[in-house]
Amino acid sequence: MPKRILQGTVVSNANDKTVTVNVERRFTHPLLKKTVRRTKKYRAHDESNQYKVGDSVQIEECAPVSKNKRWTVVAQ
Where is the signal peptide, in residue numbers (predicted)? Predict the structure, then answer.
């Protein structure tokens, strides 16, 4: 099964080797037929601490790195 890749914006880099990425998805509401925006935050592994708040990044699924980290930053 292929690994999922999501695109989002870094909202926090306070922790060592970790960034928090805000990912937004858009979908049409089934009843109202209106476009709805939903956001979710993911913790991603950033080995070199190179990404800063506001950077646009892509994250990829990986094996668990810690209690909350199941994603790795792959590109900018």
Answer: none
* Nearest Cα residue to 51 out of 7, 25, 21: 21
CA-CA distance, 48 to 54, in Å (whole number)?
17
| CATH (domain of 16) | 2.40.50.140
Q: Which of 26, 30, 23, 33 is nearest to 58 (CA)?
A: 23
- How many domains is the chain partitioned into structurally? 1
Q: Are 24 and 33 in contact (CB under 8 A)?
A: no
The pTM of this model reads: 0.89
Per-residue exposure over 13-40, b if at least 16 CB sit within 10 Å of its own CB, e if not: beeeebbbbebeeeeeeeeeeeeeeeee
